[in-house]
Amino acid sequence: MAEKAIICKDLSKQFGSFYAVNKISFEVEKGEIFGFLGANGAGKTTAMRMLCGLSYPSSGEASVAGFDVYKQQESIKKHIGYMSQKFSLYENLNVLENIEFFGGVYGVSRGEIRERSRSLVQTLGLESQAKKMVGELPLGWKQKLAFSVAIFHRPRVVFLDEPTGGVDPVTRRQFWDMIYEAAASGITVFVTTHYMDEAEYCNRISVMVDGKIEALDSPGNLKQHFSAASMDEVFYKLARGARRSAD
């Protein structure tokens, strides 16, 4: 049986009488690209914060990289990477300084940081930009660098929160090539996105509506099940069905 990178069983987060996350259950395999979809306010970010060891659940069970979300939050943080559209790099540091800083934060030795930094800058084609402030880079390059920094320490799982927001379609496709490479190396990728075409790139997708997982399967199976031509249509049908149930 393949190693489970993430296990969730009836995981919930409650604020007073409101359930931001309501008994979600799923498992993610090692090296899988797992899409976590939902509209704003569906509970995606709250769920991700619990899985990253940043927030305690109200109830349920979960483990990430083999560590319990209640008792081993610090161990989880050491074995995951994280990238957000809103903040991932220091714009007043140059490219190399960002790599060195985050490498140190993640506990990579100085020798390894120097060696991997040279390789990373070369791979990204940023040799001529290595001393340039990150704030001066185009958004697409920032996102590629941010992802590379998030997996610099070779984590077991990387969490990507809307990683390609605002970048052009060509850069988004290049970014997903990087995700495929990371997954092929054994890193599990847990990604939220509001681009439904990107959902097609995932091995499996869960769709959250109002704090609950309403569907979970491969993109092909979901489209077949809902007689849909695209993931946009799947998402629309799920959201409409949830609204009818609420009424």
From TrEMBL:
It comes from the Bacteria. Keywords: ATP-binding, Nucleotide-binding. GO terms for molecular function: ATP binding; ATP hydrolysis activity. SMART domains: AAA. PROSITE patterns: ABC_TRANSPORTER_2. Residues 6-235 form the ABC transporter domain. This is ABC-2 type transport system ATP-binding protein. It comes from Anseongella ginsenosidimutans.
